[in-house]
Amino acid sequence: MQYEVKQQDKFRFIEEGDGEPLVLLHGLFGALSNFQDLIEYFRHHNKVVVPLLPLFDLDILHTSVGGLAKFVNKFIETRGYKDIHLLGNSLGGHVALVHVLKHPEKIKSVILTGSSGLFESGMGDSYPKRGDYEYIRNKTELTFYDPKTATKELVDEVYGIVNNRIKAIKIIALAKSAIRNNLGEELNQIKQPTLLIWGNNDSITPPFVAREFNKLIPNSELHFIDKCGHAPMMEVPDEFNAILLKFLKKLNEPATVT
Question: Which CATH number is 6-251 given?
Answer without folding.
Answer: 3.40.50.1820
